[in-house]
Amino acid sequence: MEHRKKALSLVLALCLLGVAAGPAHAQIVTDAKLPVLEALQRDLGTGSSLLERQLDEPFTNSFGFPLLLAMLGIAIAVVWPVRLRLLKVYTTWLDRLALDKRLSVSATSVGNVVLTTLLVALSGQFLLWALEANLSLLPETLILAKALAIGIGIAGLGLGVGRALEAPDDPGDRPLQIPPGLEETVGHYPFAAGIMLGLTNLIDQTSRLLHATSTSWNLAQGAIALIEGIVVARFLILAGKAREREVEAATAAKKGPVVPAIFGMTAIVWIALAAAGIACLFDHIPFGILILQELLWSGLVLTIAWLLTGFLDALLAQLFDADRTVGRFATAVIGVRRSRVKQLALLASACLTVMVWLFAIGMVAAPLHSGHSIVIDQMRPLPLLNSVRSLDLSPRTIGMALLVLFIGIALTRMVRGWLEKRFLPSTTLDIGVRTSLVTGLSYFGILAALLGATNVLGVQLEKITLIASALSVGIGFGLQSIIQNFVSGVILLIERPVKPGDWVSVSGAEGTIRRIRVRATELATTDGGTAIVPNSSFISGNVSNQGNTRMAERLDLTLAVSGCSSPAAARQALLDLIADDDLPVRADPAPDVCLTTLGDGEWTFNLRLFAKPGANPRTARSDILLRLAAQSEAKGIKIKTS
Q1: What confidence tens digit (pLDDT) does each residue in 33-50 have?
Q2: Cis before residue 175, ω within 30 degrees of 0?
Q3: Bridge-partner residues for 594, per DSSP?
Q4: β-pair partners for 521
Q5: Nearest 5°: CA angle at 345, between 342 and 346?
Q6: Model pTM?
Q7: Domains of the chain by range and CATH?
């Protein structure tokens, strides 16, 4: 009987040290003003009493102890050898399918996450069932056992994400390029994040059951916050060092660094980590824990969302490929054009991507819905600002507002980039319509992000209207030109009298339209510079639109030629002089020489050429004149500009 109690103590200890998922908001005894040692002694005594009461409960049957050990061994076998074997079988099956490289890598990564999470969570549930089947669990112990099962599943989620990123079996299956110095450790941090998420909530569950004192609760939460902070900071330090090495190597090789863009966002995480540390130092431990929990939780959720969207995009791209079964059926049987099939795949990928990311954002924001005390006193003495008295300026709502604004702008840029680079080029729309659609979407997305952020802060539409009406006089006088240019830009996007790529002359500036922005339009001039023209100039002024994308490369020279026997000989001499491959001029369209003036032994010609792509028109003009000057003397003719 003694050895059974020892074994049961071990199992219960695992329950008390297990992990559980969820935010940390424990019900603690706040009125217990006890010294540290006395508080710890009181809470440990309560825990020991619970353990002793559970140990007094008998097994449900005479074979309870060996059966419990056997079921525990089965759970461990599922987590370790069975899981690794199934992952190996899954990888072999993917190799037999002969998938595209991108789809193979993304399918391997998603499969690692799904299989690992399911098998580890299954082992946790199996362990819970083993405890319930063989032990007479107390209600308190049953709560901890269920928390243990859920926590094992969360840890399995982190283990799966880490394995997907590390790809220990084949580094070529990594979904992103890991900088040197992180290859061997990148898989450990998601697993540690899963453990920390559950361990933090374990303290919450234990505090609820034991009615712990505030002293013990603060010590335990502070210790967990310290461990979580060390885990996050350690990863940031390693990522920073890896990025520094990549930048140094790229600088030495005169190439751009190949570090993934996600590693460039470490500054934001450092700021959040610093905010959590400051909150803990100033005795706002729940808020500090919330920030740390969000860092770990959002890291796991967003990584899974990124892996899943990459898999869906690669799957749809291969599924609707014109050489695959679905693509051939759509083009040959149904009669859909190949370009339409590709567009359908892109639209389906975009819809699924938006759904996945919206769900991921909801999962990230879910722990933030709990209430916290407001730490900023709302003092608004002016009558004009009385309408915003209901603003919630707590750290939670301010952080949520900034998060909504950041996510809204980020999603807008992601959709804009997808439209510009992937979907719109596959359509038959001209560049003007594409620009109008993309710019309009940008306006709408940023406006929606601003409205969402203000709504989180409690600023309603009628309050914004009140403040806007009070400021209307100042806007009318001080911002008149800005609003005029903005409205003009909207008109340009709707009517499209000009579009990117057109050669225009407006308000004394000439050049090719590079971009139509909110306030002004950028022109690429012939000298390689940029001219900024207010949008209102295109509406209220005279505009000359050539509509030729090569106007920025055009060179016009007026030359007087003498020393030839006839105008035809003079024209041919000019063509021969500029027929040199070393000159930075295009062969197509060919140089054009037109006679404009007749004279006594001298004829005036207009020479039109087009500079090669990337050549500076001013430099090209200079090179042409230098060649004409050098070669004309050798042929006994005289050329001068007029």
Answers
A1: 567 788 778 888 888 888
A2: no
A3: 606
A4: 516, 533
A5: 90
A6: 0.64
A7: 2-276 (no CATH), 304-461 (no CATH), 481-545 (2.30.30.60), 551-641 (3.30.70.100)
